[in-house]
């Protein structure tokens, strides 16, 4: 049982505080008398989710259509927003890429969460000041309608029992002012400029705006939306010596707006270092979640490793990745935090499939090895991505992977464990499901690598 949740259960049932790490003790001091609340159920269960990629933050390799009228080089949101009829193009895409039928499909297959990448410019409909001094300053009209659609997405997800993490459980900032990495999914096709003082400060301001509006949705909206899982500060930030200090400043600023909201931070593929960071600051930033992204199709080593060997390396407890996960998850649990894999996929480099005719079996083995690893050590995982515009990619598209039989038809709890929240006669089953939720763990891709045979 996850130590963080175990401590909460002890507190809840009046058995006293467990002797856990200082981060847990800091959290326990702030547990409200009404715990567990509806939001607690969403936030503290194991998150089994999928990314809704290229819905708001566009990626051309996933969805080509919005880029047809983009300005050169035609690879980023900024390029699309400066093209002709950009407002109409984007609003049509937002209204059709993901619909209620998609949320139903996700829930029916046992997933309980989605990760929703957004950029700071998607907030301009509720606070135009987020655009001031940025590349999107003169593009507010184009994005005016984004926030209402984002809140509608949260509401729709809530109706299907799905938690939402934005920007990659509700709330991560996928594209930050000035770009936090060199990829087009950071918002523009320009150079990385996040690490200057003005952009870092403005990003913290944007995060406080986001936290305020999410907190309002969770508590004050009509209806209240308890399914916001947390705020992820940055997606895949390129490491810089100033990132640690910025993380501390950003977490404190967000918590000053909403002390209860979980905060997710990217590990910059320096997992041990950022686990140590969370542990060392556990007294001041409790319940901080570390987000690791795991792909095995980009490097030279990936190419020269067979698909079966990739699966073996994820199953072998003495191999590097399982050892890191075991070490880091234990450390984070002691600090009142958690490890999640915010992005992963079934994509393999063609070199890993060399000589294989029907690859269904090895792909199924590779995906099963990942799922088993995440279930054992992680507080949650989010597959990248839900779908692609061009069908047939069973490495990157969840829908195609399920259709091809390489991804399980269902994850998580079976249907008999699901409680209908609006049924007053199901008290006993609701208590059972509560205990199951509390007893469970808490809750660089690139097209970069085409999964083509």
UniProtKB/TrEMBL annotation:
GO terms for cellular component: cell surface; extracellular region. Residues 1-24 are annotated as: Disordered. Pfam families: Cellulase. GO terms for biological process: glucan catabolic process. It comes from the Eukaryota. Keywords: Glycosidase, Hydrolase. Residues 90-388 form the Glycoside hydrolase family domain. InterPro entries: GH, Glyco_hydro_5, Glycosyl_hydrolase_5. Residues 1-18 have a biased composition (Basic and acidic residues). One of its GO terms (molecular function) is glucan endo-1,6-beta-glucosidase activity. PANTHER family: GLUCAN 1,3-BETA-GLUCOSIDASE 3 (PTHR31297:SF43), GLUCAN ENDO-1,6-BETA-GLUCOSIDASE B (PTHR31297). Belongs to the glycosyl hydrolase 5 (cellulase A) family. This is Glycoside hydrolase family 5 protein. It comes from Phanerochaete carnosa (strain HHB-10118-sp). The lineage of its organism: Eukaryota, Fungi, Dikarya, Basidiomycota, Agaricomycotina.
């Amino acid at each position: 049982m996850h130590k963080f949740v175990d401590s909460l259960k002890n507190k809840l049932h009046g058995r006293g505080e467990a002797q856990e790490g200082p981060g847990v003790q800091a959290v326990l001091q702030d547990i409200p008398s009404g715990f567990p609340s509806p939001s607690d159920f969403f936030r503290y269960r194991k998150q089994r989710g999928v990314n809704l990629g290229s819905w708001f933050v566009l990626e051309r390799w996933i969805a080509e259509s919005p880029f047809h009228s983009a300005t050169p080089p035609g690879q980023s949101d900024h390029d699309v927003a400066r093209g002709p009829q950009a407002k109409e193009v984007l609003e049509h895409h937002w209204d059709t890429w993901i619909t209620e039928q998609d949320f139903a499909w996700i829930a029916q297959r046992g997933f309980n969460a989605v990760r929703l990448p957004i950029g700071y410019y998607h907030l301009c409909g509720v606070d135009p000041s987020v655009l001031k001094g940025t590349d999107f300053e003169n593009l507010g009209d184009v994005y005016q309608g984004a926030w209402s659609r984002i809140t509608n997405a949260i509401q729709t997800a809530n109706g299907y029992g799905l938690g939402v993490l934005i920007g990659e459980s509700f709330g991560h900032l996928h594209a930050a002012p000035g770009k936090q990495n060199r990829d087009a999914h950071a918002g523009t096709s320009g150079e990385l400029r996040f690490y200057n003082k003005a952009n870092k400060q403005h990003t913290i301001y944007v995060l406080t705006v986001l936290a305020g509006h999410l907190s309002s949705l969770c508590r004050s909206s009509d209806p209240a939306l308890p399914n916001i899982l947390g705020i992820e500060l940055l997606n895949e930030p390129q490491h810089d010596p100033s990132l640690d200090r910025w993380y501390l400043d950003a977490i404190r600023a967000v918590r000053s707006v909403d002390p209860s909201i979980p905060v997710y931070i990217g590990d910059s593929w320096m997992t041990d270092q950022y686990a140590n960071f969370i542990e060392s600051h556990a007294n001041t930033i409790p319940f901080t979640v570390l987000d690791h992204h795991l792909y095995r199709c980009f490097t030279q080593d990936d190419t020269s490793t067979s698909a079966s060997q990739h699966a073996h390396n994820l199953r072998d407890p003495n191999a590097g990745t399982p050892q890191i996960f075991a070490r880091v998850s234990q450390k984070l649990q002691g600090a009142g935090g958690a490890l999640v894999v915010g992005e992963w996929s079934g994509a393999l480099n063609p070199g890993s499939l060399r000589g294989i005719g029907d690859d269904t079996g090895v792909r199924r083995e590779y995906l099963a090895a990942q799922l088993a690893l995440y279930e054992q050590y992680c507080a949650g995982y989010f597959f990248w991505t839900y779908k692609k515009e061009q069908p047939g990619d069973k490495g990157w598209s969840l829908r195609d992977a399920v259709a091809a039989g390489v991804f399980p038809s269902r994850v998580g709890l079976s249907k008999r464990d699901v409680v209908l929240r609006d049924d007053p006669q199901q008290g006993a089953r609701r208590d059972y499901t509560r205990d199951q939720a509390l007893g469970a763990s808490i809750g660089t891709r690139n097209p970069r690598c085409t999964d083509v045979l």
